[in-house]
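Following up on my earlier thread - several people asked me to post the actual chain instead of describing it. Fair enough. Here it is, all 395 residues.
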Amino acid sequence: MRKISVRRVGIRLTANLIGLVLFAGAVAPACPTSPDPAAANARELLDAGDYSALERRFGGLQAALDEGRASEAEVEKAFKGAFADPEEKYGPRLDSWVAGFPNSYSAHTARAIHQFSAGFRARGEKWASETSEEQFDGMRAHFEKALPDLLRSLRLAKKPLVSYVYLIWLGRNVTGVEAQRSLLDQALKVEPSTFLVRRAYMLSMTPRWGGSYVAMRAFLGECERARLPAQSLRTLEAIIHLDQGSMARSRENHTSALESYRRALGLLEGIDGSDRMTALRGYVRTSRSLNRLPDAIPQLNEWISSGEATPAAYSWRAWVLMQQKKHREAWADLLVAAERENAWSQYMIASAYWTGAQDVVAKDRNAALTWMHRAARNGSKDAQKFLERVQPQEK
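Reply from S.P.:
Thanks for posting it. Predicted structure:
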């Protein structure tokens, strides 16, 4: 295979970003997670302008990876947790970090990750057909800012594995499979055992990004021949099923989607991480589409226990618990979802307060109206209709 240099990849990425149009596939939404004290502390250091402390911390972490004293997963989690925050206020602060430490791998990589995240926020989470050209332009602008930092960072560390991951993600459907393969090959020369970059490459080979399931299976075979650990191989195989589930779900072939998610969950049994969370979300949502949500309670419980569940997950479990006459347990889930602005849960709480719910809450019309207004503001048609009927009587 013809070698493509990092410089050539950078030129091709720059040229093609101008005309980038993503495949009509939704970006996986960022689920609310439990607070990460380490990430929060890093942002506090940014807020305080303590770039020396950031350099010691993240530069030291990257040095540990370079010297084999830290794992790639540990380093990627730390960088992503701290800097995958799209808030605009961090842009100038990261600029100052780079200005103060122009040869810092950590500073350049942190700024690139921030711009990457800001790009996806500008794009939004809907399918391409539901995304405006203005949103795509916003995404492209941020990606163009991330690219130079990533290319620069490759020369600033012995094992810039996090940079290779983001370059592969940035270049999906931009440079084509050949350039993506070149990035992978260069990363493998740096660290032949890397799973992190192999995973990014596998994700870039899905049909929605111009690849194919045949190519993904062939790459899985290549990884098997490279004698990757069994857990890594199971995760890479699960990624194939996860994408098949996502595509089947997008075509409303929910039965096929559920089977794909079931297979992914089986492969990911005992493996924590974002891929298992994706499988759990897909399985639960597809079960709901098939009116089989009660059958997915074990998966729903695991999703909620992870601390990464969306408000909808709590509302769905509340619905199942209500069907099972477990009203107190349902009420607890409704409150969690309602406080996180789930309109259906807010409407259910309002309804309970309006009439009173035995063994749960006493009648409280003021509380009912407060929750009903919140539900209406969040788009609940039932709440809006209720207020249209009741408000004239309240005057």
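The longest helix spans residues 133-153. That should answer part of your original question.
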